[in-house]
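Subgroup meeting minutes
Present: P.N., E.W., G.H.
Scribe: E.W.

1. P.N. recapped why we're keeping a running log of single-chain structure predictions: easier to compare across weeks, and new members can see raw inputs and outputs side by side.
2. G.H. added today's entry (268 aa).
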Amino acid sequence: MRARPSPIRPPAPSATRATGSATAPGEPLPGEPSPGDRRNEVAPTLRRQRERNEAILAHARRAAAAAVVAHVALGVVPMHERPVTALPADMRERFLSRLRGRLAEAFASPRQVPGADRSVEPEAGALANVANIAGTACSVCGGACCTRGSDHAFLGVESLSRVREENSAQSQAALYGAYVAHLPQEHYLDSCVYHGARGCTLPRVLRSTTCNRYNCGGLTQLLRALTVEGDAPVGAGGAVIGVSDNVTLRRLVHTDGTSVRDIAIGHV
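Output recorded in log:
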């Protein structure tokens, strides 16, 4: 899902330093870090995270090799550990208020739906197995990307225009009623209103285009390892999926698309 934008600080107004001189427009005030200082702070943080990611991936490879599943596709997905709680009434109402306005706009002035954004039929044959493996990766993650959905669920006018087009027999009121009916009583704390304990409570045809199309870095890595150019599936050994909290490897599983087996991660 889209990264949250960094806060933008407006240009600092001219200010007088202790020496009596004024700062140039946009110049940091005394004690405020300069843009260069911020870059110097961010770069080591990114480097440390890359090093942790490489160590986590290496750990997963060694554990897979020890379990004699070394020569299959491997990817490491994130995890979340938020507790399940009652869906707050104010959060529910904020979502429904936004939904009513955006759904009305989608019916009054629908946006053009690009072909790539339209829902697709489930894959068949070998590609269906790849899709099943990808689904397993999402399930062992638990929906870390869903935590960005908050009280909007990424349901903008563009996505709702697609939903309207694909459910042309449904009225505006009927679609609104469907979204209301799928709201869970409980969801993960501070996550999407539809992020229930067993995953997304919305059927795929009602989800946002963002939710239907998004692949995290670990899932992208896994899909690349599972397929070759032209989306032709490779290998019959399934895949190994790691789950990480961005610091350590927390879980490792082997799946063939139909069953899931945990692999001991130990300290290899």
